[in-house]
Every structure is written in structure tokens, then in C-alpha cells.
Design goal:
The complex is a heterodimer of chains A (409) and B (137). With 409 residues, chain A is of the alpha/beta class. Chain A has 13 helices and 15 strands. Chain B has one domain: Alpha-Beta Complex (Sufe protein. Chain: A). Chain B is 42% helix and 20% strand. The chains are: A alpha/beta (409), B alpha+beta (137).
């Protein structure tokens, strides 16, 4: 554990002292949601104890504080993903809402009959269903880029499917099942040559590796707070600055207006135009503490740490001849996620037996049914790491899997 | 590991691994698919009805040990019964899984699934076949 002080970090997460079934908690379900450090938990209290008020509306002391906190959160997120302008940062509920936002606004306005939307087969349902909706409503066509023999996105297939007909490429930065990190910079560069816009689902990348939206040069970028040590119910949508006018408002109502008449209205400038109604001010405020924590440890250190865990985990699991792994054989360009199955045992049974040992993993299709079908499995077990996991956690997983084998011979 | 002993008892594993009912029923009068979209349990239930009597029944599909064993045990229980009695037993089983007082002996092998009621995440696995049968009848 040379990259981070793991013992100290573990102490920052009170939930890690919970004892499921009397065992030490080994939390390996970080791709679903992450646990929160004490600083983040305290920030929730602090918001309601010291600065709760609605934003932008009232001139009183508390409202000024909450508005400052909300705008500070926007500023911090802007820096965190290196966006050019604060106007580009829109607070949503989560990644799903951010993607739906673009589908219902930009998508419904700019995607037309005969156009194509290009996705990858490994997308999460939240980056498939909104585009199925647009395609159905507008008579557009969905196309998928498939994987190569090493479970990585086939850039050959991508290049073959790109054409002037493609209006949008919607692609995940990191797969929540395979852990593969897609070459989003190259994808964006190629898509732009054909005049297509690019949306990146960054739900799995932003918490685990440095992300620079200017360097990627994507048009839209979506991620969630709860997968990066932050609270539930706060997410981010990044819209590139030159598209802010082209994207219509999503929800309409309070806070997003300039002037309202009986039969028409004008809108506030971005980002307020995109944030109708009282936003999740508490969530945005607490997100600052999550970003503080991540920056204190350092995303590069977190990425390296998870890389070590991944390499160790892959090596240990390859030694179990009854375990089948899904994903690239190597740990390069890959996040801390291992999907696998135990020969002849349904993932749900595996997860239940592991749970009895205190090991929390997810089993199922991981909201990726098209990928499961492509891999030819109904479901998998998934272990996903974060900064508070260590080699001992992986050893516990491996020991748990040996117990699974004992139950199901 | 006593809880797991209850969940993966010998009877359950026997039904899971060697169910005599796992086959397609060629002359079925009813066929219904049941699945749990979140976990991937997926079964197809076949019934051959003669009037109100369930003359034969079988299943195909895949899923966890609990869902598959539960389906097999259910077929054991309802084969030869009439529709009304089968529905009554289905309700007994559902009540058992929801920790209500029931006459366990009436449920045959399926009573060993009582332990599932202590695993909330697995309740829907145990209920899949029974809910599917309710749909058919």
C-alpha cells in the first residue's frame, strides 16, 4: 500500500466498523455506491445547523450563506473536472438524470429521422434507454460498437460505424462491469470529424481517476456524487460552453426564468436556466467535502492504489480454477472492478454466501443486460474497489469463494 | 454458518441439482415464463390441465439454487391437485415466506424454504415459481 496511508483512511469511514453477521465488513460494492468519510457525514449536519436557506431568492443572511455554498460547490466541481466555465456545470440528481436531461433537450431537438446514435454494447441501461426513447420518437437509429477479443472496446468497429449520419456518440468512460477505460479522447476526436456530438457517462471514472473534460473535448459529461464519497441525490451534468445556448431547458419553473408573462417566458442565463425549482443545496454543499477528501488523498494515488488491488485480485482469482473472470486479462487502462462467475453456481448464491462472511458484492446484470447477453451469461458477481480497500479485503473475498465451492461442489 | 445450513440444506440442493421435473412438457395446456429482472432468475412453467386437475407439470430455465429448488418443490406439491387446492397451497407458501403462521406439514419439501424468510434479499427468488403459478391459474 505504498500510494496511500490505508490504515488512516479506514479510520475515516465509520461504517467500516459495522459487523455484518458478526464478521469484519469487506465492502466491495463501490461501483454501486461508495461509503462516506466522517468529514462528509459531518458536513450534512453542518449544512442544516448553520446555513440552511433557499438559494438566489432572499436577501437575508442565511440565504446569502447557502447561495455562496451552492456556488462554491459549482466552482469546485468545475475545477475538479477542469471545465472552462462555471456556467457549464449543472447540478442534477445523478448520472441517469444528467443523461436523460440531454436526451430530452438537445437530443429531441437536434436528432432527426434517419440520424444515427452510436452507443457501445457495454453501456449501463441509463445510457441506453434515454437514446431508445429519442430514436423511437424521432425515427433515428441506434447502433452499437462491440468489444474485441480481450473485452476492450473495438476501435476498429467504432471507426467503421462512424459516418456523417451519426449525430451523437454516447459512451461510458469506464465500464461498471468490465472496468475497461475507453479511449474517450480519441473517440471524441474522431466523432467530431464527422460533426457528431459526444456524451460521456463518467459515473465510474470521476471517482477513481483524474478527469479533464477540456482535454477529452467532449460535449456532455455526466456523473454522480454518491459514487465519489458524496451524498445521494446530487449529480453533475457538464455541457460544453459553446452548446449552452443550443440546449433548451429541461424542467421549467422557479429559479430558471428571466421574465414570465401570461403566455411566454424568457429564461435565466446558464446554468440557472437548467436548474428549475429548489435544487439539492445540501447535496451540493456536502459534495464539496467529498471533493476535499478525494483531493487530499489525490486521484492519481487513488488510481494507482486501485490498480495494485486489481492486479493482486486478478492474480489471486486466476489461481481459483472454478472461477471464470470477465474482462481484459491485464490490469492496464482498467479500473478496480472484477466481474466473475463461480462455475455452476448462480451469482446470487455466490453473493449470499459471501455476505455471510461479511463480504459485500453485487450480483446480477448490473443494469447492463445487452452486455450480459453479449457475454453469454445471465448475470455475474462483481467486486469493485475504492480507496479504503486493501489486500486483506481481497484475501477475504478469495477465502469466501473457497467457501462457495464447499457449499456447491 | 447455521443460517446458510438452513438456506442451502440437502433437500434444497437435491431439488436444485437433480430435479425430476426439469423438462419441457410436450403436451402442456399452459406455459408461462416467470423472471426476476433484477437478478436474472428465469423459469418457464408447464402445466397439463385435465379440467380442473393439474395432471402434469414441469419447468425449464436457469437461476439461483433457491429459485430453481423452489420451483421443483412446488411442482412436487401441486401435481395431481385441483386448481382450488393448488391456489390454497400457493397462498400457504407465500404466507410462510412472509413469516405468517401456517401448517408447514401441508407444504411437503417446500417447508424447508422457511429459512429464506430470514434472507430478505432472497425472498423473491423463492416466490418466483409460486407467483408464476398464480398467474396461470
Amino acid at each position: 500500500m505504498k500510494n496511500i496511508d490505508i490504515e488512516r483512511i479506514k479510520k475515516d469511514f465509520p461504517i467500516l466498523s459495522v459487523k455484518p453477521h458478526g464478521k469484519r465488513l469487506v465492502y466491495l460494492d463501490n461501483a454501486a455506491t461508495t461509503q462516506k468519510p466522517i468529514e462528509v457525514i459531518k458536513a450534512m449536519d453542518k449544512y442544516y445547523e448553520e446555513l440552511n436557506a433557499n438559494v438566489y431568492r432572499s436577501p437575508h443572511y442565511l440565504s446569502v450563506l447557502s447561495t455562496q455554498a451552492y456556488e462554491e460547490a459549482r466552482e469546485r466541481v468545475k475545477k475538479f473536472i477542469n471545465a472552462k466555465k462555471e456556467e457549464s456545470i449543472v447540478f442534477t440528481r445523478n448520472t441517469t438524470e444528467s443523461i436523460n436531461f440531454i436526451a430530452y433537450t438537445w437530443g429531441m431537438k437536434h436528432i432527426n429521422e434517419g440520424d444515427e446514435i452510436l452507443l457501445t454494447i457495454a453501456e449501463h441501461h441509463s445510457n441506453i434507454l434515454p437514446w431508445q426513447m429519442v430514436a423511437e420518437a424521432k425515427g433515428a437509429k441506434l447502433k452499437y460498437v462491440y468489444l474485441d477479443e480481450n473485452f476492450r472496446l473495438s476501435m476498429k468497429d467504432f471507426k467503421e460505424k462512424m459516418s456523417e449520419k451519426v449525430k451523437l456518440v454516447a459512451v461510458q468512460h469506464m465500464s461498471n462491469v468490465l472496468g475497461i477505460i475507453n479511449p474517450v479522447e480519441e473517440i471524441t476526436h474522431i466523432a467530431h470529424k464527422y460533426g457528431a456530438k459526444v456524451l460521456i457517462d463518467g459515473a465510474q471514472s470521476v471517482p477513481h481517476m483524474p478527469v479533464d473534460v477540456q482535454k477529452i473535448d467532449c460535449d456532455f459529461f455526466a456523473f454522480s456524487g454518491h459514487k465519489m464519497l458524496g451524498p445521494m441525490g446530487i449529480g453533475v451534468l457538464y455541457i460544453k460552453e459553446d452548446l449552452l445556448k443550443e440546449v433548451p431547458p429541461f424542467l421549467r419553473g422557479g429559479e430558471m426564468i428571466d421574465e414570465v408573462y401570461e403566455d411566454y417566458s424568457t429564461f435565466a442565463p446558464s446554468p440557472l436556466k437548467f436548474e428549475a425549482g429548489t435544487p439539492n443545496i445540501e447535496g451540493a454543499y456536502v459534495l464539496i467535502s467529498a471533493i476535499d477528501y478525494i483531493e487530499k488523498i489525490g486521484l492519481t494515488n487513488i488510481y494507482k492504489h486501485e490498480g495494485e488491488l486489481l492486479e493482486y485480485g486478478l492474480q489471486k482469482m486466476k489461481e481459483l480454477d472454478f472461477v471464470k473472470l470477465y474482462g481484459p486479462k491485464d490490469a492496464k487502462e482498467r479500473g478496480g472492478i472484477i466481474s466473475f462467475n463461480v462455475e455452476g453456481v448462480h451469482p446470487h448464491d455466490v453473493a449470499t454466501i459471501l455476505d455471510e462472511e461479511g463480504v459485500a458484492v453485487r450480483s446480477g446484470h448490473h443494469c447492463c443486460q445487452p452486455l450480459m447477453r453479449y457475454l453469454g451469461v445471465p448475470a455475474t458477481v462483481r467486486a469493485s474497489f475504492y480507496l479504503y480497500n486493501d489486500f486483506e479485503d481481497i484475501d477475504a473475498l478469495v477465502e469466501g469463494l473457497k467457501k462457495v465451492r464447499k457449499w456447491f461442489k | 454458518m447455521s443460517d446458510l445450513n438452513q438456506l442451502y440444506s440437502e433437500v434444497i440442493m437435491e431439488h436444485y441439482e437433480n430435479s425430476p421435473h426439469r423438462r419441457e412438457l410436450k403436451d402442456a395446456t399452459h406455459k408461462e415464463r416467470g423472471h426476476n429482472p433484477l437478478c436474472g432468475d428465469d423459469i418457464t412453467l408447464y402445466l397439463k390441465m385435465n379440467g380442473d386437475i393439474i395432471e402434469d407439470a414441469s419447468f425449464t430455465g436457469h437461476g439461483c439454487a433457491i429459485s430453481q429448488a423452489s420451483t421443483s418443490m412446488m411442482i412436487d406439491l401441486i401435481k395431481g391437485k385441483d386448481k382450488k387446492e393448488a391456489l390454497r397451497l400457493v397462498q400457504e407458501f407465500i404466507d410462510m415466506i412472509h413469516k405468517k403462521d401456517v401448517n408447514l406439514d401441508e407444504l411437503g419439501d417446500a417447508q424447508v424454504l422457511q429459512g429464506v424468510s430470514d434472507f430478505p434479499a432472497r425472498v423473491k427468488c423463492a416466490l418466483l415459481a409460486w407467483k408464476t403459478l398464480q398467474e396461470i391459474l
